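Can't paste images in this forum, so I'm doing it all in text. The chain is below; anyone willing to post the predicted structure tokens underneath?
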Amino acid sequence: MSQIRPARPDDAAAILSLIHELAVFEREPDAVKNTQEQLTAHLFGPDPQVYAHVVEEDGTVLGFALWFLTYSTWEGTHGIHLEDLYVSETRRGAGHGKALLSTLARLAVQRGYKRVEWSVLDWNAPAIGFYDSLGAGTMNGWSVRRLEGAALAELGAGA
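Text version of the structure:
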């Protein structure tokens, strides 16, 4: 029987392993720079700013949802940004992803948050179909922007 629960420090290695699986799935196998030590510090340090829930079965972590809080100036309340939702490929189709998202939705409702948001790669048709089946809408007219690397350093140096 599987269960959804908040991640614990001893889950960091399993979560990082799943992050590496996700990177391979997303065609970026060498992109992960995160370490178990960094993940542990960020999730379980004295003032965590990022959180995770895992799906576990018989002591094995099968998937995770890693998230952090956002704030809507229009709504005047927080929301949840889902950074990553991943279930090991061999364990998909059993409702684990839906259970993880349901857990985050329940947290949002209980805490009075107005949104749970995330990004999905435009080529990931199975994920898009899954999200559509849950009633998640596409943010038409919006595109994700990112400032990183040299551009980030250059802009930051001028501040």
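The mean pLDDT is 95. The first helix runs from residue 12 to 25.
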